[in-house]
Design goal:
This protein has 20 helices and 13 strands. It is mainly alpha-helical. It has a domain of about 90 residues. It is elongated, with a radius of gyration of 50 Å.
């Protein structure tokens, strides 16, 4: 009979899969953070949220592996005996403390990302970025050792913005989006540049668990510390502290009333319910796309669970390699995020966290279909405090001690408040003086810059002046030479003019004499011509006249 019962119990279980979660070596990164003064850790959080909390989170991997066995692949949630849990954008945003609003979405890795963009985000010059950007496999990126060495140098130099960016990128690549050990790949760099890791982190949780579930084994390469923090938020402390009981027994015996369901921060807040024409939430991770079903997480955000969700709101897809085989779906997902659909109190009802029987019944029917991974024979009760009987005398003494301690506590609280006020005043005064000092430094730097520019300008002006003086001396010399030659030319010109005048006069006289001779020749010719026309007697007479 007992064997038959054992076989029946085993048949009511579903298969257990061999999963592992990425467990990077974080000792060097944590050691670097431990060297930072608490004030600078707080300042780091102003720009990068709770990344240090995620980094320092100690993870019980057995708990996560056990949790993964409860994953309900078609519904994208963890299904237990009478309830379901599914991480949401709002919960991850609260844990990370990096707001999503008005920030770009990671939509894939750009291996050709310009160096100047990477260098600018890390507060380094392009040459340093180029010299240290390595190729590993099919991607580029920075080694963890380079970023840690750079951060350590900047920490000593108190160059905080550059130091913070190096640490943050290291956390992005090693903790949030772990891929290759000791290497921050281009995917992590691209997510880092968006300053919006939350949607990608949630996508990676669903994508990797869903993908590994289809393979029924393998490494789940999502951010394990974040998933573990999220799970602890809902678990009662007593369940976590019962180390003498195995995680399968603890999680297998969990019931709806045992959980801490939601934070007051979510009360009446609008939630991202769907995007574009998708009935649920299409998410883009570091290796592909997957859907999430916010309709199953309403109770975690303070809203009531009235009954079973509509079937179309659970429509599932798993897109590998960013839609290499279905690019149109990937394009639809990217377009959908341009139209985010939110719901709040008006659509979901008053925030009271109540779950009604129709929903419980639907979950129980779901459990009958998919079965539980572990069979718990005896529910594990929460440990109750033991009652202790104390004599009246001891009670009175305890009361007096308590009153005294309360008074001391009140005095200490007053002193603490005074100390806090003094600290705040000192901090404010320090910040004010630092601001003044910074203003003076900036003013001095500006004046120094102006002085250097003026000095350079004066040096250039002196050089130009010397050049002009040289040119002026050369011009003066040329003018003197030209004047000397002008005087010589003028004198020579006068001599030539006088010579030419005499020659012209002589020529003029010669011309006159020649002209007179020509005129005489003409007269003689005329006479000769006339003589040729007369008789010899007349000719002789004319000749005598001429001779006379």
């Amino acid at each position: 009979m007992s064997c038959r019962n054992s076989r029946n119990m085993e048949s009511s279980k579903r298969n257990i899969y061999s999963f592992k979660f990425k467990d990077p070596d974080l000792r060097s990164l944590r050691s670097l953070i431990s060297q930072m003064h608490p004030v600078y850790r707080i300042n780091f959080g102003k720009n990068y949220g709770n990344l240090l909390s995620i980094l320092n989170q100690q993870v019980d991997h057995t708990a996560l592996i056990t949790l993964a066995q409860f994953y309900d692949l078609p519904l994208r949630c963890f299904t237990f005996q009478d309830f379901q849990l599914a991480p949401t954008l709002e919960e991850f945003e609260r844990l990370i403390r990096i707001p999503m609003k008005d920030k770009p979405l990671f939509v894939g890795t750009d291996e050709s990302l310009p160096l100047e963009i990477i260098a600018s985000a890390l507060h380094m010059d392009e040459k340093e970025a180029k010299d240290n950007l390595e190729t590993k496999g099919s991607t580029k990126g920075f080694s963890l050792s380079f970023l840690l060495e750079r951060a350590h140098t900047l920490l000593k130099a108190e160059s905080w913005d550059a130091c913070y960016s190096a640490i943050a990128l290291a956390i992005y690549g090693i903790v949030l989006f772990p891929n290759m050990d000791g290497f921050i790949d281009m995917t992590a760099i691209c997510v880092f540049l968006t300053r919006n890791p939350v949607p990608t982190l949630l996508a990676d949780v669903y994508y990797h668990i869903s993908h590994r579930y289809t393979k029924k084994k393998g490494l789940i390469a999502c951010c394990a510390p974040l998933l573990y923090q999220w799970f602890l938020e809902h678990l009662p402390g007593a369940w976590v502290e019962q180390t003498d009981i195995s995680w399968p027994q603890r999680l297998g015996s969990l019931r709806s009333e045992d959980l801490s369901w939601y934070s007051k921060e979510y009360i009446n807040a609008d939630i991202i319910f769907s995007c574009g024409d998708f009935p649920n939430l299409p998410l883009i991770g570091t290796q592909g796309c997957v859907n999430a079903n916010p309709v199953l997480s309403l109770r975690q955000l303070g809203y009531p669970m009235e009954g079973p969700p509509e079937a179309n709101s659970l429509e599932a897809f798993l897109l590998l390699d960013f839609g290499a085989e279905n690019p149109s779906l990937f394009q639809q997902i990217k377009e959908a995020w341009k139209n985010v659909n939110r719901k709040g109190k008006a659509e979901l009802g008053r925030a009271n966290g109540i779950t009604k029987e129709p929903y419980f019944q639907w979950v129980k029917e779901r459990v009958q279909i998919i079965k539980m991974p572990f069979v718990i024979r005896t529910p594990i009760p929460l440990p109750e405090p033991k009652l202790t009987h104390v004599p009246i005398e001891e009670m009175e003494e305890l009361k007096a001690t308590m009153a005294k301690l309360e008074k001391e506590n009140e005095e200490l609280q007053t002193k603490l408040q005074q100390t806090v006020n003094e600290k705040n005043n000192m901090k404010w005064e320090l910040e004010r003086k630092e601001a003044q000092l910074q203003a003076h430094v900036e003013k001095f730097n500006k004046e120094e810059h102006k002085r250097k520019k003026i000095k350079v300008g004066l040096e250039q002006a002196d050089h130009c002046l010397d050049t002009l003086k040289g040119q002026l001396r050369q011009t003066q010399k040329e003018c003197q030479d030209n004047k000397h030659w002008w005087h010589l030319a003028t004198k020579e010109n006068k001599t030539i003019r006088d010579t030419l005048g005499a020659q012209i006069k002589e020529l003029t006289n010669s011309v006159r004499q020649a002209k007179a001779e020509v005129d005489q020749e003409r007269r003689l010719k005329k006479i000769a011509t006339e003589a040729s026309r007369v008789s010899p007697m007349v000719w002789e007479e004319k000749c005598r006249e001429v001779r006379d």
